[in-house]
Design a protein that fits this description.
Layout (H helix, E strand, L loop, with lengths): L1 H8 L3 H18 L2 H11 L13
Length: 56
């Protein structure tokens, strides 16, 4: 997910989206549900490096 995040931060939204789609597809194929969920969240605009909402 870090390469997709770095692409987004550098202004390459198309590259970030392509990377996140590929990560989600491969994660699903491998059964890595946590990584797949992270990639899907990233595609919806979430920051995978952000702490949870209820984190103090």
């Amino acid at each position: 997910m870090l390469p997709a995040l770095l692409a987004r931060d550098s202004g390459d939204e198309a590259g970030a989206t392509a990377l996140a789609h590929a990560i989600a597809r491969w994660a699903a194929a491998l059964g890595a549900v946590h990584i797949e969920a992270q990639a899907i969240g990233f595609l919806a605009g979430a920051d995978p490096t952000a702490p949870p909402e209820n984190h103090s």
